[in-house]
Design a protein that fits this description.
The protein is of the alpha+beta class. The chain has one domain. It has a two-stranded parallel sheet with strand order 1-2. Strand 1, helix 2 and strand 2 form a beta-alpha-beta unit. The longest helix has 15 residues.
Length: about 60
């Protein structure tokens, strides 16, 4: 389950791994990325997120 604590940890992880504070002006590609946790974290940090999935049931969720 995605909750605020897990999302904040993912944001921290992305900032540390990529050595950036904010993602404005950057793009993030999530390819069939499970829960989408890191795509969500990147979006919250300001990235433009592109997702690719073959699971039709996820499509309405990903469009939001």
């Amino acid at each position: 389950m995605l909750d605020e604590d897990r999302i904040l940890k993912a944001e921290y992880s992305l900032r540390e791994m990529l050595k950036v504070g904010k993602f404005e002006g950057k793009s993030f590609l999530g390819i069939d990325s499970g829960s989408g946790l890191f795509s969500l974290a990147a979006r919250r940090l300001g990235a433009k997120v592109f997702l690719l999935t073959m699971i039709q049931s996820r499509m309405p969720v990903l469009r939001n």
